[in-house]
Write a structure and sequence with these properties.
- The chain has about 230 residues and is mainly alpha-helical.
- It has nine helices and two strands, in the order H-H-H-H-H-H-E-E-H-H-H.
- It has a domain of about 120 residues.
- The chain is about 65% helix and about 5% strand.
- It starts with 11 loop residues before the first helix and ends with a helix.
Amino acid sequence: MNSPSVAQESDPASTESTPGLVRGLSLLDSVLLLAGGIIGSSIFLTAKDIAGPLPHPTLFMLVWVMGALISMCAAFAFAELGSMFPDSGGQYVYLREAFGDLVAFLYGWMLFAVANGGTIAALSVASAAYLSAIFPAISEQHVVLTAVGITLTRTHIAGLISIVFVTWMNVIGLRKGAVLQNVATWAKFVAMGAFVILGLAIGKGSWGNFRWHGENAGVTMGLSMNQL
């Protein structure tokens, strides 16, 4: 005998979405995000400061190799920590588990107020300064305001506009922020490739650049590693 069918009402609580981070990045987005973070923008800003004190190009390349080895050690350490504590939060979580809530709390505020904020400000102004070579109207010589020992130039304003633009792109949607990140990472690849190709094709190099110059290579190596 057939049992009567019973209509089951769906539980409203079961249909509600659980709040959390949106998993909207593809594999390509994630790879380009990591590549952009690894390469960074400092390679376009600090390479001359690293090469300047060194007496030979071989040492210049050696500094980058040493930096890569140090970065690999950090990558392995973070991979191990990530497998041990698979929670959102990254370094905040690791510090909380190791040293407690207070240290993690202070670290989070340090990132917000000093480390990340200062890095973003420095890179935005440096990028605007490089851009002023193409658009002289935003050069540092155009002073907008001077007060209490602080000088505001058009370069600073251009850097501020770039920060607002990138922030806005990330606020309005994950997909739009990912597209902007992808474009920026590909632009880094193109720029570095262009430096190499154009340098070999039309650069007026000289074998004399491979001669030793300067003194005390140990000190200059230390200075260059500090820049790296």
